[in-house]
């Protein structure tokens, strides 16, 4: 399997991996993911040679990854027997970054083609299972042990699913486990409605299929689910502290427009 053989939404894993690779080259990185840089270099040795090749404008994706990591570490510190469902994992190296104890069972899920690619670049580890499946096929959940706390992470995934699929996923996970944390990110309705004209998505032949103006309201889908909080993104202190000056300036300007400031929302739920 080659990266060039990925189709549509599967191709969106590359720009986020590239952002993490470039972050690692900052003097004081946000995520500091050396493995992401190695994988990106093997995938595309000249990834930083082209026009805007070293632009750090994608750092906001790194801030998103850091927010998900921080929440995940917090949950795992209190739930050493957790099962982690890392959905739409792409080539993200979260399991190595977080390095959970052996009492945690971690599942990385993405389409079979992505998992095949992943296995060429990222080594196996104990208590780590990869599942090649669409997240919308309910059969994958049967392969995961029940009766333990669950941590579900869906980073950069939900907008590519339809609302009924997101609802089935969330309610299915809540029904399957006694307790847990669900962390995901969403885009607003306007971003979903205009996504077919979005130049970045067009480049990858992908489109958003849902959007939420009030992602906290997803908690209403299940009586046991409650909204906890939201993590800052384009106005986050870590971005403003660590991004190069030109990137900080660009984000400060974008943050003046509330629609752009909240164009991705990272939210956390518990049950
Ligand atoms: C923007 S990438 C994010 C990858 C990874 N979470 C990260 O942040 O680096 C979106 C990922 O979601 C995956 N994806 C989209 N729809 C999916 C589905 N129905 N089932 C499984 N994976 C899906 C894509 O293949 C891709 O790897």
TrEMBL record:
It is an enzyme of class 2 (transferase). GO terms for biological process: methylation. One of its GO terms (molecular function) is methyltransferase activity. InterPro entries: Ppm1/Ppm2/Tcmp, SAM-dependent_MTases_sf, TcmP-like. It comes from the Bacteria. Keywords: Methyltransferase, Transferase. Its EC number is 2.1.1.-. This is O-methyltransferase. It comes from Nonomuraea thailandensis.
